[in-house]
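stuck on this one:
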Amino acid sequence: MSKVKPLIACLIAAAPLVPAGAAVLGPHAGDCADGKPAMLVRIDGLKSRAGTLRVQSYGGNPDRYFDKGAYLERVEVHIPPAGPVEVCMPVPRAGLYAISVRHDADGRSGTSVHEDGGGFSGNPNVSLFDVLFKRKPSPAQVQIRVAGVTRVPVTLNYVHGTSVGPIRRDM
């Protein structure tokens, strides 16, 4: 009986992080299933299921996180009509990384401050001034330590009048 517990623990540890029935989106979905170093980004708080999501990963110098063109990987996916939204983002090795997500609600690649949403790893608070002046969150708020496949929850924020925050849904 004492050998059964370690065997069960090993099987649980080796199980993939992707829940049964959940389709991981993007061209690198297999990396998360194979256990390669990656971030499994779960995106919550969508305003709608229309448009596309752009997920970008950043590594290296934290002062360059979110600089134009400084991303390691960029993936654009159409939003599925239902179910969880998860995107696998590979990284070259274990280490510190960050994620940004943009919801292009109309799918036309332009930015509409009143329609599109966005979020970051670590889910930092974002103000309307941050959005208007394109201020980046601090690296300490967004860094994720990746070892193997690491889950990264991102809640999207949208402009609501003069504030920015997650969509509030009546329960």
